[in-house]
Amino acid sequence: MNENSNDHPDFTAYALGEASLEQSTRVRRRLAEDPDARADFDQLQKTIDALQQVPAPPRRALNPRQRETVLAMSQLKTLPPAALKTLRPMKRHQHPGWQVAKLAAAACVALGAFFVGQKFATPSSAGNSKMTVATESSSGETDIPPPSSSLRMETDHTPRRVDDIPPQVAMQSNFEAIAEKAVLPQPPLQQPPASALVPESAEKIAVTSTDAAKTPDAKVEVSGQAAPAKNPAAKSATSMVGFVMATDKTSSVFEFKPNSARRLPQANGLVLASPPPVNSVQQSKKTGKNLSPQPALQFHSWKAEAASCPWDTGRRLMRLVIQVPVNQAAFEVNEAPYTMQASFDSSLVKGYRMVAEKHIRPGADRNLSTRIVWYEFIPTEKFKASEQNPATIGEFKVLQPQGHKDGASNDGALALVDRGTAWEEAREDFIFETSMVGFGLLLQGKENIGALNHDLVLNLAEHSSSEPPKGERASFIQTVEQARNAAGL
Amino acid sequence: MPSQPSKHPAGELVREALALHESSLIAYACGILGGDEERARDVVQDTLLKLHLADPDRIRENLKAWLYAVCRNRAFDVLRKEHRITFTDDDDHLDWLDEWQPDPSEDASREELLEHVWAALEQLPASQQEVVRLKFQHGLSYKEISSVTGHTVTNVGFLLHTAVKRLRKLMNHACAD
Question: What's the pTM value of the predicted model, to 2 decimals?
Fold first, then answer.
């Protein structure tokens, strides 16, 4: 405290009984020595007294039905799974012809796969958002730009924890709670239709590397066939099956193809299936200069957020969003893909795998193309992250073409910061997209998916929002229900 | 003999939350949602449903802060969805207060202060209003407010101090008028 100042937060803290011993001593000494300080403090005290005299707000209560719902949840864990199923929230979309859907199992699952792809294109996820570079110290704008530092925490991308317990420990019981809600155990890989949707080398495509040719498969295969354990949580807590070990390969690279970023052209009101290719060679000849064969990629914004994984307490999920303006040379005169790289710090990340990715083309009134990538990673024992002490688990950057310095078009790399957020405290959109990622994993028949099943996907999707799902979200829930029924679950 | 651990600790926490914090949480959410009580009830119901999914051991000691933090997030989610959220924390309109020096002899009495205090509160920037409400209406400690809002404890102290000072001036000004 400035000895010459009577205007210091310590005075308020002292008046409110919030001052530490040291602060109290200082304030008391100041009050004893300085009559002006005493006068100011009296004024302060009067105002605080007035604030403390304000009558309590009128008594309010939940509606009886709401209270009943809340209390009924307490009973869910005591009931057998069969009874639990009947107590699930009422299905909002009972399909009248579900018997038909049951018979057409493969068709339903395929439809589900289609929806998963489409859902990533919902505007709420990122499509309409304007994001700035979200580094640890930056004030990134999200769907609603928060100019106020004090209100920044109200935005959706940094949900807070209320203590410092490490996420691995913190999530253990959450997982159990959800696992109990997830009515049935994971069946032994009952996704034959889904497996047909995924190429055999899907994982290799998802997690590729520049040196992939030299090390064709860096995945750790603990067991040949992923037969789910009877207790998935216990197994998956340590299982690295299907994950890339960060000590073997610290980077995951993926491509950004210009053709997937362009706005779909329209002809006479009809949206064409694919944008026309461009002739970059001709363009170079036109200029007559010794241009770089591939222009540097300028990007508009990027953002990473992480939270615990609902289907395995030992893992975490990270959502990475990259937005690039399409009106740049990289897309206008170039067809060669760009390489993006997410690197993981092996001291904090034991293993990782890419679990979902999505392109969102720019809409009619926007110039930004969006790429969303989801990673699942297994933290090491050293990993400890909290809101107060976030952990930088790695970085993301664009590997610019030769002739351009890395990050020349934008500054440096994006630090992948994990604030130890638990998934229940994450943004609604994050939770809902988590359910979509989970459904995608089920459809793909991915191995090592912990306690993930259709019920967990439904729980996540249905409880991600305080409001009843509408529109495409409701359709997604309906699709998952159909897929679950179709799979005989 | 050590006490038996509860069979359904989350359920007990929910009942405790209902008994102790139901009304104040609704009032808090209502404040964020511009007085929409029905929405506030929905938000609080959702908060309590989330409590079922949370780890009781982790939040038992911080139940109040946890409830307010989740309730706050859900309320802002609702506002965000409805595009009703405004981040006008601009306090430029209060610049005149820094210059205004009331006549000490005209300092408002306690009764006058009581009369004007909440009207004056509405004029404060949102961040200051929020910490004042959490402190004086809901009885949260600096640390709990820090957990709920994401401000550091030091920043909470600063915001409260600034808010109280400004309230004093605003109330005196109102009384002088």
Answer: 0.41
